[in-house]
Write a structure and sequence with these properties.
single chain, about 270 residues, about 35% helix
């Protein structure tokens, strides 16, 4: 899963890692003060992490575009070849509930394609980063554990990462078709991280997602050889005028057709 990176790619990857790591550390330190609770804590953490990331990216890469969940969007990013897509705090509910299953996402797209990214899991003491470009992949982990590639064997029964806060009607049927067990968790980044850390085997989501939810998790999953697509198998595109993308499926390539077929049979594609 490793490759020799060009100096420019290595610099961008180290920047993404440092940005995600430090933003997560700031959010953790604010939570540890005990000054805020519930929705106020979520807002404080979101704004602090976003302000840090905005300043860092604009200061280091002033010619690049930025798309962030917490900052008003502008069309200026659409004119940029390179655009950073960030989610300062993915899983604000879990963050405010003092849970571990939240993340910070920092990704770089070039001409609409995700090239590199970092998914920090601050409360878990881990950070997963990766580069996926030109058919070559590189991934790395900070913290305890080992990364699991897409060619690894699935557990039996397969573990299906699902949302802990909202479970659509098609999810139980989907899990049953795969003969799997549900593993509830918060945060898109954390759920994708569960697959890459060997804690789950399949993740599928329909509705409510934006580019900042999926971009960094997609890059790190692809860097480890996992299949990432929309529910019908199409690839995602990024840095579009409307950042809503809704759909995400992450699984081992060997399971791809089985998973996509189960999604269709379970009714996940119904409008």
């Amino acid at each position: 899963m490793a490759r020799h990176l060009s100096l420019e790619l290595r610099r961008d990857l180290e920047f993404a890692k440092a940005a995600a790591r430090r933003a997560g550390e700031r959010a953790l330190s604010l939570r540890a003060t005990g000054r805020w609770q519930d929705d106020v804590l979520a807002d404080v953490g979101d704004q602090a992490a976003d302000g840090y990331l905005q300043g860092l990216i604009q200061g280091r890469h002033p010619e690049d575009g930025i798309l962030s969940e917490e900052t008003a969007d502008t069309r200026a990013r659409l004119e940029r070849e390179r655009t950073w897509i960030v989610d300062p705090l993915d899983g604000t509910r879990e963050f405010s509930q003092m849970r571990e299953d939240w993340a910070v996402h920092v990704a770089l797209t070039v001409a609409g394609r995700p090239v590199l990214g970092a998914v920090a899991l601050p409360a878990r003491g881990r950070l997963i980063a990766g580069v996926c470009i030109g058919g070559s992949e590189h991934a790395e982990l900070e913290g305890e554990g080992e990364l699991v590639g897409g060619t690894s064997d699935a557990s039996s029964p397969p573990r299906i990462a699902v949302s802990r806060s909202h479970t659509p009607g098609w999810v139980p049927r989907f899990c049953a078709l795969l003969g799997g067990v549900e593993v509830p968790s918060g945060s898109v980044g954390n759920k994708v991280g569960m697959l890459l850390l060997g804690e789950a085997d399949v993740y599928a989501h329909r509705r409510g997602l934006k580019e900042w939810d999926t971009c960094a998790p997609e890059v790190v999953a692809r860097a480890l050889g996992w299949s990432v697509s929309r529910l019908r198998g199409e690839e995602q595109r990024y840095n579009r005028p409307d950042p809503r993308n809704d759909e995400l499926v992450v699984c081992r390539p060997a399971w791809r057709e089985r998973v996509l077929g189960a999604l269709a049979e379970a009714g996940a594609l119904a409008r």
